[in-house]
Amino acid sequence: MIEVWTDEEALECTMVVPEAPNVRTFAFRAPSGRLFDYRPGQFVTLELPVPGGPIHRTYSISSSPSRPLALSVTVKAQEGSVGTRWMFDHVNVGTRIKASGPAGSFTLGPTDRKYLLISAGSGITPMMSMLSYLYDYGTDPDVRLIACARRPTDLVFPQTLTHMAGRVPGLKLSFAVTEEEPYQVWTGYMGRLNQLMLGTMAPDYLERDVYCCGPEPFMQMVREALSYMGYDMARFRQESFAAPAPVAEVVPDDDVVPDAAASAQVTFARAGVTLDCRETDTILALSRANALRIPYGCTFGICGTCKVRKTKGEVRMVHNGGISDDDVADGWILTCCSHPVGEVEIDA
Length: 348
Ligand code: FES
Hints:
Layout lengths: L10 E10 L2 E7 L13 E6 L6 E6 L10 E6 L6 H8 L5 E8 L10 E7 L3 H14 L4 E8 L8 H10 L3 E7 L11 E2 L4 H7 L7 E5 L2 H13 L7 E4 L23 E6 L4 E6 L4 H7 L17 E11 L7 H5 L2 E3 L3 E9 L2
Parallel strand pairs: 7-8, 7-11, 8-9, 9-10, 11-12, 13-17
Antiparallel strand pairs: 1-2, 1-6, 2-5, 3-4, 3-6, 13-14, 15-16, 15-17
Bound molecules: FE2/S2 (inorganic) cluster.
The site of FE2/S2 (inorganic) cluster has 13 residues, from loops.
């Protein structure tokens, strides 16, 4: 029987590959030899033991589940980053790291659909997983990839992608940069992605399912361009690990609205602690303020790291996709975006 990796087992680093300036791929295996089972486009959350206490960071998986012996993440160390910089400095072959997941709903649909994948910078990582999967699947996929970066050297995986496109006629690539490299010829697109370029790179975009990953301003531009060109936005999907822009919250009429004046009480059953709070507090904020440890990553309902089981009471939870309907039906909540209503007990 095939045994599948679960996040109870730490991952062991098997390879570190520099991909571009400040971008590296970290490949991991399960020391037990278990295989990785996930969907192309999903992410894992790594627990990074930085000085001062562990922090959790969520990274898209860049490897494909069609090669289940290894799981890779390809990460960019942004200026001022703590977690990813720690990985660059401390994760080497043999390093073991706790991880949770895989999770996420930004996943590829059926292999016979027509896709348009649009990425900026390290937003290429979930696309790489999807493309490798389609490539390995063996039938000729119908995919257009638009990969944008600042300079040609900032493009991630250009050689691997070119190699794959050279063997699979249905995979077409377009690269666009905003700055040339001195003393190097650039034959791809130049400038910020716009409607004109989009229409030239993928003339049949109306027939394709669009997946987009990159910084929020980039994704906003893509959304606006597609919608302006009459694209059916119900077929548009995007991934982002940045906090969503605040929007006026629509509260269903029958929903319970937290009341700043109302008090609540949360029992952390495993810790044996009961705390008073306000209904407007999140359970995660309450745990952090009282040195109770619930792992967390994004803090805005995307990554699923802060998931715990609620054993009593009611919460009001507005999340951004970090938990499935089945989990919610099973009593799980995301503590980072759950407000206690009255008396609540959780398994933490
Ligand atoms: S910390 Fe990411 S969903 Fe709560």
